[in-house]
Structures are given as structure tokens and as C-alpha cells.
Amino acid sequence: MHAQTYATTTLPWALRTDHLVGSMIDSSTSLLAAQKHDIVRFAMGSPAAEAVPHAAMAEIAGRVLTADAFDYGATEGDPALIEQLVAFCDAFGEPTSPDRLVITSGGMQGLDLACTLFVDPGDLVIVESPTYTNGTATVLSYGGDILEAPMDSDGLIVEALPELVARAGRLPTMIYTIPTFQNPSGTTMSLPRRLALLELAREWGAVVLDDDPYGHLRFQGDPVPSLRALAPDDPLVFSVRTFSKLIAPGLRVGWVDADPAARRLIINAKQAMDTCTNVPNQRIVAEFLRQGLLTEHLASLADIYLPRKIAMQTSLERHLGGRVRTTDPEGGFFLWVTLVGDDAAVDTRRLFEIALAHGVAFIPGPALSANGLFGDAMRLCFASSTPERIDVGVQRLAGALDAARAE
Ligand code: PMP
């Protein structure tokens, strides 16, 4: 029991409530829903509305949702979905087997399960800087200590880790990485760095939390093998995947691919959380895969997302040329935009407030770092808006930046 006073009420709070930091990313959904004026949404990492196959899903739902789909399901996942998933992963070059898979309630539950298994209070967890802070929020909720490690255009600078760890004075128990089209930077870890990371993890006995929701969403360049594909049998690699960006986030269906010994504990942990993942949605996804629709759907996404990335880069050049620097991802959803020159003095948390009034939303850099770094940067999601809307949004962002400078 813990005596903290929270939200003006004194209750017998558990110690861990000190570490429930919340997520600005998730909170932006309700914040934006409450706004009455028109807002261009670069904040959430949502698929394009046009890229959600809702008509096909509704048709499938009408056929497959028989009475048994509304009963409790197996904790490890619906057998029909597991069967389809094995074939899907195999075709993507990530061969797996049913004794490695557990269907989860989105990728977030996969991250939570990894921390349940491997993070004790005070354990050191290396994360990329910047990173997806819902992941670091999960680590913090288990009492883990975060060590932010720098990135460059080839992803996590693996060569920098030994010195960081030496300075920390203890070995990490986990390294959390989003290797492909990283959230938020959009960068992809190079093959040599992936191999070096696996080597280092083995040397340290650290778990590699391989969070890869965007790997299927490549619209340019050559594929790089995933960490799972590079180390298919390595028990230290714990892979978290999700259909949120591939089909739709509201489904809340994802999966973990882990060593069979870990899987038994994952099932126990999930039984203490939510019994099983939503069965109707698993059945719908299974049928979507069985008909080969997911493969077709993924092939069509490059035609939506590449023009949007280019549109955002072009609009940034048009309205903010010389005032920002951006990354150039070959897939995924995000551009990482850094203010340069005199504009770098503007704090993007303040810019966010002004931008909201100007009718555009994004995620400020400090919300993507456990230590609140990157006050001069922001994450822009190009996936959710049409090229025309992107241009409107970037123009509004430029107006907001002028207003921030004038304060
Ligand atoms: N990891 C990363 C890197 C993500 O970007 C997301 C979603 N934004 C998740 C995990 C969580 O996925 P889900 O929405 O399926 O829980």
C-alpha cells in the first residue's frame, strides 16, 4: 500500500500508481474528439480511412459470426486465426509455429506481456531515443528503469550501447526496439546493426523486445530481414506484432511470437489479464486472411501511403522550407520533423497548443521520450490524411509556428 494523494482523493494506492504515466499519444484521441473546429490530424498513428477494408470486414462478419463466436475462446487464440497466421508469417519470411504464438489484444498487450515476464522493479531497459512512449509507459508501470539510447538514419546506434551500459553500471534485462519504420522517427535499423544487436543481447543475456507493427508497410527500397527472421529460434527475441496498422486498430487484434517456454507463461499472464482476445474479431481477421484478402490489401497500401509521404515532404518544403529538417522513411506512417535555425527555440509542446487552435494536431517530441527530450521536434503522421488535407495541415502548422515565434 502507498500513501500518495492522487486526483485529490486519498485511497490505498498501490506503489505502482507512481509509475502510471499515461500516454499523450492515446489521450490525443479524446482531446481531438472534444474539439469543435476542423482539425487536420497528424497526431494519431491511424491508417487512412480509405485503407480500412470496412465493407469486406462487415460482409465477412455477417457470414462468420455464428453463435459460437460469442463464447469464451482459447487464451492462446482462435485456432482458425492461428492456422492462418502461421501461413501469413511464413509467406513474409518469418516462419513460426502454433507453439510460439499467442493472439493478443493489439500490440500493446504484447508489450505488456513481455514486461510481465521480464521486467522487475529496478531492472534496466534500453529504449530508442526517441521511441513509442506507450512502450516505455508499460516498462515504467512494472517499475523498470529506462535508458535512452541514441539513433541515427540507420536506426539504433548499437555501437553506442556498451559504453552507455558501462556508465549505467549494470546490464540491461531488456532492449526495446522498433526496428522497421520506427515510431516516431520512421527510420529502419540497418542489417549490420540488427546482427550486432542480436550479438550484444546474447552477450548480456538481455531480451530483445522486437516491436514491429510497420514492417509490412514498405512502399520504397529493399526489405531488411526482421529480427525474428534473423534469429528464428533465439529464446531472447520476443516479437510483438499487430493487425492495427495492417487492417484496423479498432479490432484490437495482434500477436506475440516467442519461445515455446515463454509462451506457457504468456498464457498464464494473459489469463490473469483478460482470459482471451475478442473472439468475433479474431474470426473476422482469420477469414480475411483465409480468403487471401490481407495479402491483396497490403499490396494496395503502397499506392496510398507513398503519395502521402511525398505530399507531406513537398508541403513541408513549400510552407516551411529551410525551417525544418525531416527524416525520409521508406514505409510506415511517420515523419520526424526537427525545427532548425531560430525556430529551434520554439518548444513543440507550446507549438502543439497553438497549432490546435490553428486547426492542426501532431505529437510533440518530448511526448516521445521518457526523459522529455526533443523539445525542438515533432512526429507527423502522413498516413491518415489525403494529400490535399496534408497541404492544408502543413500550411496551418507554418501559421502556428509564426504565431509561436511572435510570442
Ligand atoms: N508498437 C508501436 C511501435 C506502435 O506504433 C503501436 C501502435 N501505435 C503499438 C505498438 C500498439 O499497437 P496496437 O494499437 O495494436 O496496440
Automatic annotation (TrEMBL):
The keyword Transport does not apply. Its cofactor is pyridoxal 5'-phosphate. Signal peptide: none annotated. It comes from the Bacteria. One of its GO terms (molecular function) is transaminase activity. SUPFAM superfamilies: PLP-dependent transferases. InterPro entries: Aminotransferase_I/II_large, Class-I_PLP-dep_aminotransf, PyrdxlP-dep_Trfase, PyrdxlP-dep_Trfase_major, PyrdxlP-dep_Trfase_small. Residues 38-397 form the Aminotransferase class I/classII large domain. This is 2-aminoadipate transaminase. It is an enzyme of class 2 (transferase). Keywords: Aminotransferase, Pyridoxal phosphate, Transferase. Its EC number is 2.6.1.-.
